[in-house]
Amino acid sequence: MTVRASFPVRAPRFRFVQKEEDAQAIPRAWLGGSLYRTHRFNAFHMIFPHGEIYFLKSVNAFASRVTDPQLAADIRSFVGQEGRHGHEHNRVVELMRGQGYEVDRWITRFRSALDRSQEVLPASWHLAATAAGEHFTAVFARTALDGRMREYPAELERLFTWHAIEELEHKAVAFDVMRSVKIGYATRMVGLAIASYTLLSAWHNATLHLRKQDNLSAADLKTGERETRAKNDLSWREILRAAVQYARPGFHPNDDDDREVLNAALAQWAAVL
Ligand SMILES: [Fe+2]
Ligand SMILES: [Fe+2]
Fold it and tell me: Which domains does the chain have, with CATH numbers?
């Protein structure tokens, strides 16, 4: 069997600048001047680094049981891509520390919860949770590449675009590993429940952790909520819709044909990734 080249592990260099006098500085309220909207996305920088480690550990735990050389090559690319994502989002976390945000208490709690779960729950559940998590990140990726990021500072738009492209490239790997080691529908649904709960609660809690530090008033919250809807920012409703889609017994990540959106994004961005 010929093994096609797996998707590439890119290593773009980003410059996340805090100094206000620098033209490329990323302000505290980098999304439309709204701290409310900004924190809903800053929360992802806090979730991703350890989330990515959880994903790659969960898939790697089954790598030795995968006999298909193509899937084995895809696992290596998957691990490479996720590792780089975590590394770069961590650099934005560093920027947030520089902006005066306390992030470490939340991140330490989140990391311990993920580590503890990996000690006590079966490996098959983690692989299933990762496969579901990858469906969510593919859905995020599609929403990110549909033009909603145009008002982001340039380096954050490039960071999320790079991440989104690679999420679409590797979206089926964890799912295919799960199928190849014969994990069935019941465990797949356990994984969906774990991934949905973890993602929604972590997103909500990390956002609140940041929002509290800015003491947003009731009026700020109301305006923020209104702007979030008006701008069509990513919402928990899209996650729930994605969960319903994933629960269909015959579902496969490639049911969503992303080639057009992926090729368009690559044509526009490849030179700077
Ligand atoms: Fe990722
Ligand atoms: Fe991923």
Answer: 35-272 (1.20.1260)
